[in-house]
Each structure stands twice: as structure tokens, then as C-alpha cells.
Amino acid sequence: MLAAAVFGLCPECGAKTLFSGVSRFSEKCDSCGLDYSSYNVGDGPAAFVTMGVGALVIVLAILFDIAARPPFWVHVIIWIPVTVAVTIFSLRVAKGLLLIAEHRRGAGEAGGRDLK
Prior knowledge:
Elements: H1 2-7, H2 44-68, H3 72-105
Helix pairs in contact: 2-3
């Protein structure tokens, strides 16, 4: 599942058609026709990724500051691009994992018959 999310593979046929942008899903798979828009990934991965990456970057920045004591501008040059790159990559992987998990488990929106 992780490799499929990292490389953007279709959960049905394995073609590299899951994403049409950096972290934007395609409408459907060009190979097998699987409709990606029917899955509800939502904003859940964004919240967890942002908190996780933020915590990781803060810890790394503090450790780097303790070890090297660089001037503030060095922190800005290092940590802003690192934060952006890690967040985008992690968001792509998290969204892919969630969509693939929904597909494998046959998850869908709750209906009236599910509430009984």
C-alpha cells in the first residue's frame, strides 16, 4: 500500500494515474476507468500531516541550533524549504494511502440503511 501511495498507482490496476498534480487526485484511472472522485478522502490527512511535520521540523531545528548555533537566517534558508517539501510529499502519501485503504475495504458514504 505504501509503495502504491508514494508512486501514485491506481489501487485497481497499478497504473501511475492516481494523481494529476502534486497532491491532487485525477478524476479517474486512464487505464481501467476506476472513478477516484467517488472516494471521500477529505481534509483529515492535511491536519495530521501538518501537525506531524511541524513537530518533526521543530525538533530538528532545535537540535541543529544546539549543535551548531547558526545565525537566524541560516535557519530560515534551511527550514522553510524543508518544511514545504516534506509537507507536500507527506500529504501526497497520506492522501494516497487513505484512498487506497478506502478502495481495498470497499468503504463508502453511509446511507439510510446503515443507520438501523
